[in-house]
What does this fold into?
Amino acid sequence: MRVRLIPAEHDYLNDVQDVPRAFVPFMEIDGDADNFLKWSCRYADGRFFCSIESDVFGNAEKSFAISDADVSVYKKYTKRFIKNFLYDFLAEKIGKKLPYGSLTGVRPTKLYYELSEKTDNPYEYLIDEFHVEPARAKIVRDCVKNQKGYKNSSDENVALFVNIPFCPTRCSYCSFISTEIGRVKKQIPLYTESLVEEIELSKELVKRAKKKVTSIYVGGGTPPALGAEYLDKVLSPLKEYNVEFTVEAGRPDVITDEITDVLLRNNVTRVSVNPQTFKQSTLDLIGRKHTVEDIYTAYDRVRGRFDVNMDLIAGLPEESFDDFAESIEKTLDLRPENITVHTLSLKRGSVLTLSGAVKEADGLIKDMGDFAIEKLYDAGYVPYYMYRQKNMADNLENVGYCLPKKQCVYNVDMMEESISVIGSGAGAMSKKISGNRIDRLSDPKGFREYVERTDTILRQKKEFFSF
It folds into this structure.
């Protein structure tokens, strides 16, 4: 069925639309559809009322008692009320339940922390109040449990992030602002020069504010795509910090002996070797110009020298359950310190989305995800961070697992937004966190604009980070 959404006219309720959108493709949302789904709300005599109207689903109304004296509390709880009400209504009418129930946010663990302050059993609360299925509530609970001792909360701590938006090729599922390195090789020296200048400013800001750097993450993109010479220039200013230092090496075909030497020389402690799959035909289909054998070669170069993360994706085009299960098994055979299991998300601007791919919701990817959970737990891995995105197959999640005591501090702090982060590079996001307040500053996404506006970027950054 096709419906158009008619949402309540309150800005703070804009993201309530994510609830009906989560039911795609069980129902199709189209602004030109004849049928409609409408919700509205009102406040009267100490009660908040929500009404749902639809010419295909019928009508319903529900209310609860709440004071409107504290605006922030009022907005939070009325929004949750509407989301839960909409979810209950649609789940019954469509006959489908979603793994995360009415939760639509990126960070379920942040909600779990909040609930922990109000109830003795936030796990049961997720299940009873938000309709999260028990298996998913368990992952949320276990991520929070396994963050203990790794999640920072001191205002004195900061993380450093460096973005290098270049890749050897563009993967069909990717929507990151990244450029194929072969097209821009002549601009790499200029980009590196501007980036190093911003990194040096970041270090100066840390020193001036007497902050403590707790982790460094160099991502992208595929940072080693710069080549050893320019990667060394970027990493060298950061090697003085004796902290967890991650470089998203990513593509196995760029992890050469020369690149490995650069990483070691600059005190990098953690790298990624991301297969995504161990099926060669899938690698070819999604645009990764390397072989399965390259994965093993790259892993052999870095194992024992760094903590290693390996990414896999459930739901890649034309992959069966057995294909994904084999990738899980082969990754476990290698036993890297970290394994991240992603669910395919159809991102706006990706080749997959532009080619007409639709969100999968037939349960196959959920079976893949459930298999990964069982196998990773059985192999001694524990979940320690997670996040969700829109348009994820079977409405699932991305979960980072690790061997005991191998949690990545940066991943925990970024997902929980627990400390400030000073970002450098095209598209890098900086966050200044003070209590519950989060201020953001983003560098220009295009690397050419980034290079051309270096002076402006540095000035804005100085003003922003007046801690």
Remarks:
- The chain is about 35% helix and 20% strand.
- Residues 97-146 form one domain.
- The radius of gyration is 23 Å.
- The mean pLDDT is 95.
